[in-house]
Amino acid sequence: MSKTSIDQDFYYTINQSSIAEFKDRGSKFIAYAYPVITTDEAKNYLQILKKEHPKALHHCFAYRIGIDGNNFRVSDDGEPSGTAGKPILNQIDSKQLTDISVIVVRYFGGTLLGVPGLINAYKTAAALTLQMVPVVQKQVEIKYELHFDYTKMNEVMTVVKQFNCSILHQEMQLFCLLKIGIPKARLEEVLYKINDMHTITATMI
Questions:
Q1: Which helix (H) or strand (E) holds 12?
Q2: On the CB side of 37, how many CA atoms lie within 13 Å of its CA?
Q3: Residue ranges per domain, the chain?
């Protein structure tokens, strides 16, 4: 379970990718970190690296997505159970990160490293790539869908900007649809302002 909690107003992630390399007794471990917000994104990065490194014996990974701590996965990809995916995830969790995937590609160097050696190698490679990328703090957002008449556009956008809401999707016609992420810490204030406009319907999504 991640230390990131749904009760928090902020969470930590990365917003750019990084790469680092670790060598041990001839084996080469290349670690990649990517910001992801869906499991499909994590899978896509894995497929890209499998194409980039077709001769690598193992493509091990761990990802954690979302702020409830429940959406995560680890893979040892043929390494002894618990020697790759879990040590990678432990490095993600030690920095309290989410919305992130770390993939470690291994080229075998001819010498068996043993279970402790493998755990150390995957842990170190993951730690190195996480050191290469800045951690960013983001606001936990609650997603809402707003329906309103076009004449209310300016009032709505003023509230959106004032409270630093993110715009996820918009359809602007005679009747407008706006999907926004409202910072959890400002939710009550935003909903009060929106409800005060009367002709706007706000639905949590």
A1: strand 10-13
A2: 3
A3: 10-137, 140-204
- pLDDT tens by residue, 138-171: 999 999 999 999 999 999 999 999 999 999 999 9
Residue ranges of the alpha helices (H) in 39-186? Answer: 39-52, 85-94, 114-131, 153-162
Q: What 8-state DSSP symbol labels residue 165?
A: P
C-alpha distances out from residue 103 to 12, 64, 77, 200, Å: 19, 12, 11, 45
| Residue of 27, 96, 120, 104 whose CA lies nearest to 58 | 104
140-204: CATH number: 3.30.70.240
Which residues are CB-neighbours of 161 under 8 A, at least 6 positions away?
A: none
Whole-angstrom CA distances from 163 to 7, 21, 74, 89, 173 are 20, 42, 37, 34, 24
Q: Which residue has the tokens 């670790």?
A: 22
Is the pTM higher than 0.90? no
Is 10-137 assigned to CATH 3.30.230.30?
yes
Q: What is the pLDDT of residues 14-64, one digit of tens each?
A: 999 999 999 999 999 999 999 999 999 999 999 999 999 999 999 999 999
- The DSSP output letter for 34 is E
Cα 178 from Cα 189, distance rounded (Å):
18
Q: Which two tokens stand for residue 130?
A: 């996480």
Write the CB contacts of 7 (distance below 8 Å, at least 6 apart in sequence): none
Neighbouring residues of 168: CB distance < 8 A, sequence distance ≥ 6: 143, 179, 180, 181
